[in-house]
Amino acid sequence: KQEVTQIPAALSVPEGENLVLNCSFTDSAIYNLQWFRQDPGKGLTSLLLIQSSQREQTSGRLNASLDKSSGRSTLYIAASQPGDSATYLCAVRSAGGASGSRLTFGEGTQLTVNP
Amino acid sequence: ETGVTQSPTHLIKTRGQQVTLRCSSQSGHNTVSWYQQALGQGPQFIFQYYREEENGRGNFPPRFSGLQFPNYSSELNVNALELDDSALYLCASSARTSGGDTQYFGPGTRLTVL
Q1: Using DSSP, how many helices (H) and how many strands (E) does chain B show?
Q2: Choosing among A37, A45, A101, which should be mutated to test the B contact, i.e. which has the most B CBs within 10 A?
Q3: How far is CA A12 from the centre of its chain?
Q4: What is the pLDDT of residues A39-54, one digit of tens each?
Q5: Which residues in chain A are closer than 8 Å to B103, comparing Cβ atoms?
Q6: Closest CA–CA distance from residue A63 to any residue of chain B (Å)
Q7: CB-based contact B93:B81 (threshold 8 Å)
Protein backbone atom coordinates (compact mmCIF):
# COMPACT_ATOMS: atom_id res chain seq x y z
CA LYS A 1 0.00 0.00 0.00
CA GLN A 2 1.41 3.35 -1.08
CA GLU A 3 1.98 5.90 1.66
CA VAL A 4 3.02 9.51 1.11
CA THR A 5 4.63 11.69 3.77
CA GLN A 6 5.30 15.41 3.61
CA ILE A 7 7.77 17.30 5.76
CA PRO A 8 7.48 19.81 7.32
CA ALA A 9 3.78 19.96 8.19
CA ALA A 10 4.00 23.74 8.47
CA LEU A 11 6.54 26.36 7.46
CA SER A 12 6.70 30.10 8.06
CA VAL A 13 9.30 32.17 6.19
CA PRO A 14 9.99 35.83 5.47
CA GLU A 15 9.29 37.16 2.01
CA GLY A 16 12.11 36.62 -0.49
CA GLU A 17 13.44 33.44 1.02
CA ASN A 18 14.08 30.34 -1.07
CA LEU A 19 12.51 27.22 0.38
CA VAL A 20 12.21 23.47 -0.11
CA LEU A 21 9.23 21.25 0.60
CA ASN A 22 9.79 17.52 0.92
CA CYS A 23 7.70 14.52 -0.10
CA SER A 24 8.50 10.84 0.34
CA PHE A 25 6.63 7.74 -0.82
CA THR A 26 6.98 4.10 0.16
CA ASP A 27 6.44 2.29 -3.17
CA SER A 28 8.76 3.35 -5.97
CA ALA A 29 6.53 1.75 -8.64
CA ILE A 30 4.89 5.02 -9.59
CA TYR A 31 3.51 6.35 -12.84
CA ASN A 32 3.96 10.01 -11.97
CA LEU A 33 4.09 12.48 -9.10
CA GLN A 34 2.19 15.72 -8.93
CA TRP A 35 2.44 18.82 -6.74
CA PHE A 36 -0.73 20.76 -5.98
CA ARG A 37 -1.53 24.02 -4.26
CA GLN A 38 -4.65 24.44 -2.14
CA ASP A 39 -5.92 27.73 -0.77
CA PRO A 40 -8.11 27.58 2.37
CA GLY A 41 -11.48 25.95 1.66
CA LYS A 42 -10.74 25.68 -2.05
CA GLY A 43 -10.03 22.93 -4.55
CA LEU A 44 -6.65 21.82 -5.85
CA THR A 45 -4.53 23.63 -8.41
CA SER A 46 -1.96 21.51 -10.21
CA LEU A 47 1.51 23.08 -10.11
CA LEU A 48 3.83 20.51 -11.63
CA LEU A 49 3.59 16.92 -12.84
CA ILE A 50 6.69 14.73 -13.15
CA GLN A 51 6.49 11.49 -15.10
CA SER A 52 8.34 8.51 -13.61
CA SER A 53 10.97 8.74 -16.36
CA GLN A 54 11.73 12.40 -15.60
CA ARG A 55 14.03 13.88 -12.97
CA GLU A 56 12.60 17.38 -12.67
CA GLN A 57 10.08 19.91 -13.93
CA THR A 58 10.16 23.69 -13.76
CA SER A 59 7.48 26.34 -13.96
CA GLY A 60 8.43 29.92 -13.22
CA ARG A 61 9.77 30.13 -9.65
CA LEU A 62 8.89 26.50 -8.97
CA ASN A 63 11.12 23.50 -9.52
CA ALA A 64 10.17 19.94 -8.62
CA SER A 65 12.59 17.03 -8.58
CA LEU A 66 11.94 13.31 -8.45
CA ASP A 67 14.22 10.52 -7.23
CA LYS A 68 12.07 7.47 -7.81
CA SER A 69 14.56 4.93 -6.52
CA SER A 70 14.80 6.61 -3.13
CA GLY A 71 11.09 7.49 -3.03
CA ARG A 72 11.59 11.24 -2.73
CA SER A 73 10.50 14.46 -4.35
CA THR A 74 11.21 18.07 -3.50
CA LEU A 75 9.43 21.26 -4.45
CA TYR A 76 11.73 24.27 -4.55
CA ILE A 77 10.17 27.74 -4.43
CA ALA A 78 12.48 30.61 -5.29
CA ALA A 79 12.10 34.15 -3.96
CA SER A 80 8.93 33.39 -2.00
CA GLN A 81 6.08 35.93 -1.96
CA PRO A 82 3.10 36.42 0.41
CA GLY A 83 0.86 35.19 -2.43
CA ASP A 84 2.60 31.80 -2.20
CA SER A 85 0.95 31.24 1.19
CA ALA A 86 -1.15 28.08 0.85
CA THR A 87 -1.07 24.35 1.54
CA TYR A 88 1.11 22.36 -0.84
CA LEU A 89 0.15 18.76 -1.50
CA CYS A 90 2.21 16.01 -3.07
CA ALA A 91 0.36 13.17 -4.81
CA VAL A 92 1.61 9.95 -6.33
CA ARG A 93 -0.07 7.91 -9.04
CA SER A 94 0.92 4.30 -8.59
CA ALA A 95 1.68 2.19 -11.65
CA GLY A 96 -0.89 -0.25 -13.02
CA GLY A 97 -2.91 -3.00 -11.39
CA ALA A 98 -5.94 -2.46 -9.23
CA SER A 99 -4.76 1.00 -8.24
CA GLY A 100 -5.81 2.32 -11.62
CA SER A 101 -5.05 6.00 -11.87
CA ARG A 102 -5.88 6.87 -8.29
CA LEU A 103 -3.74 9.48 -6.58
CA THR A 104 -2.33 8.93 -3.11
CA PHE A 105 -1.82 12.23 -1.31
CA GLY A 106 0.37 13.37 1.52
CA GLU A 107 -1.13 15.49 4.29
CA GLY A 108 0.40 18.65 2.93
CA THR A 109 2.75 21.41 4.03
CA GLN A 110 1.07 24.62 5.16
CA LEU A 111 3.26 27.50 3.97
CA THR A 112 3.06 31.05 5.29
CA VAL A 113 5.18 33.75 3.68
CA ASN A 114 5.37 36.86 5.84
CA PRO A 115 5.73 40.32 4.24
CA GLU B 1 -9.99 27.33 -14.08
CA THR B 2 -10.00 23.58 -14.78
CA GLY B 3 -13.42 23.35 -16.44
CA VAL B 4 -14.57 20.93 -13.75
CA THR B 5 -17.60 22.12 -11.81
CA GLN B 6 -19.24 20.76 -8.67
CA SER B 7 -22.58 21.40 -7.00
CA PRO B 8 -23.59 22.39 -4.48
CA THR B 9 -20.68 24.37 -3.01
CA HIS B 10 -21.86 23.88 0.56
CA LEU B 11 -24.32 21.49 2.15
CA ILE B 12 -25.54 20.85 5.69
CA LYS B 13 -27.19 17.55 6.57
CA THR B 14 -28.06 15.70 9.75
CA ARG B 15 -26.85 12.29 10.80
CA GLY B 16 -28.70 9.44 9.08
CA GLN B 17 -29.73 11.47 6.03
CA GLN B 18 -28.67 10.81 2.45
CA VAL B 19 -26.82 13.21 0.15
CA THR B 20 -26.05 13.47 -3.56
CA LEU B 21 -23.12 15.51 -4.84
CA ARG B 22 -22.63 16.34 -8.51
CA CYS B 23 -19.68 16.87 -10.79
CA SER B 24 -19.44 18.01 -14.40
CA SER B 25 -16.27 16.89 -16.10
CA GLN B 26 -14.08 18.88 -18.38
CA SER B 27 -15.10 18.48 -22.00
CA GLY B 28 -13.64 15.33 -23.59
CA HIS B 29 -12.79 13.65 -20.29
CA ASN B 30 -14.06 10.09 -19.86
CA THR B 31 -12.78 9.37 -16.35
CA VAL B 32 -13.91 10.85 -13.06
CA SER B 33 -12.48 10.27 -9.60
CA TRP B 34 -13.91 11.27 -6.22
CA TYR B 35 -11.89 12.16 -3.14
CA GLN B 36 -12.77 12.98 0.46
CA GLN B 37 -10.66 15.55 2.28
CA ALA B 38 -11.16 15.88 6.02
CA LEU B 39 -10.02 19.09 7.68
CA GLY B 40 -6.23 19.31 7.91
CA GLN B 41 -5.63 16.13 5.93
CA GLY B 42 -4.81 15.19 2.37
CA PRO B 43 -7.54 13.94 0.02
CA GLN B 44 -8.43 10.25 0.24
CA PHE B 45 -9.47 8.30 -2.89
CA ILE B 46 -13.10 7.12 -2.79
CA PHE B 47 -13.61 5.62 -6.26
CA GLN B 48 -13.17 6.19 -9.96
CA TYR B 49 -15.49 5.76 -12.94
CA TYR B 50 -14.39 5.14 -16.49
CA ARG B 51 -16.99 5.06 -19.27
CA GLU B 52 -19.83 4.67 -16.75
CA GLU B 53 -18.32 1.74 -14.84
CA GLU B 54 -16.57 1.74 -11.48
CA ASN B 55 -12.86 1.31 -12.07
CA GLY B 56 -11.23 1.20 -8.67
CA ARG B 57 -12.35 1.90 -5.13
CA GLY B 58 -10.62 3.09 -2.01
CA ASN B 59 -11.24 2.05 1.57
CA PHE B 60 -14.78 3.40 1.87
CA PRO B 61 -17.92 1.49 2.91
CA PRO B 62 -20.69 0.58 0.43
CA ARG B 63 -22.87 3.45 1.64
CA PHE B 64 -20.61 5.56 -0.60
CA SER B 65 -21.77 4.94 -4.15
CA GLY B 66 -21.51 6.68 -7.47
CA LEU B 67 -22.72 7.02 -11.00
CA GLN B 68 -21.23 8.28 -14.21
CA PHE B 69 -23.58 9.33 -17.00
CA PRO B 70 -23.17 9.07 -20.80
CA ASN B 71 -22.13 12.73 -20.92
CA TYR B 72 -19.44 11.80 -18.34
CA SER B 73 -20.93 13.90 -15.57
CA SER B 74 -20.99 12.10 -12.24
CA GLU B 75 -22.73 11.78 -8.88
CA LEU B 76 -21.48 10.75 -5.47
CA ASN B 77 -24.17 9.39 -3.15
CA VAL B 78 -23.69 8.87 0.56
CA ASN B 79 -26.35 7.07 2.60
CA ALA B 80 -26.83 6.99 6.37
CA LEU B 81 -24.61 10.01 6.95
CA GLU B 82 -22.27 9.95 9.91
CA LEU B 83 -20.58 12.87 11.67
CA ASP B 84 -17.19 11.74 10.29
CA ASP B 85 -18.49 12.21 6.75
CA SER B 86 -18.09 15.96 7.25
CA ALA B 87 -15.41 16.91 4.73
CA LEU B 88 -14.59 18.59 1.44
CA TYR B 89 -15.54 16.30 -1.43
CA LEU B 90 -13.48 16.76 -4.57
CA CYS B 91 -14.02 15.35 -8.01
CA ALA B 92 -11.34 15.16 -10.66
CA SER B 93 -11.76 14.45 -14.34
CA SER B 94 -9.22 13.15 -16.79
CA ALA B 95 -8.90 11.83 -20.30
CA ARG B 96 -7.36 8.39 -20.45
CA THR B 97 -4.82 8.25 -23.28
CA SER B 98 -1.77 6.17 -24.15
CA GLY B 99 0.32 8.94 -22.65
CA GLY B 100 -1.42 8.68 -19.31
CA ASP B 101 -3.81 11.11 -17.72
CA THR B 102 -3.64 14.31 -15.72
CA GLN B 103 -6.44 14.82 -13.24
CA TYR B 104 -8.13 18.20 -13.10
CA PHE B 105 -9.90 19.00 -9.87
CA GLY B 106 -13.13 20.87 -9.26
CA PRO B 107 -13.58 23.41 -6.45
CA GLY B 108 -15.19 20.86 -4.14
CA THR B 109 -18.38 20.53 -2.11
CA ARG B 110 -18.14 21.24 1.61
CA LEU B 111 -20.43 18.79 3.46
CA THR B 112 -21.24 19.35 7.11
CA VAL B 113 -23.06 16.60 9.01
CA LEU B 114 -24.70 17.65 12.28
Answers
A1: 0, 11
A2: A101
A3: 17
A4: 988 899 999 999 999 9
A5: 34, 46, 101, 103
A6: 18
A7: no
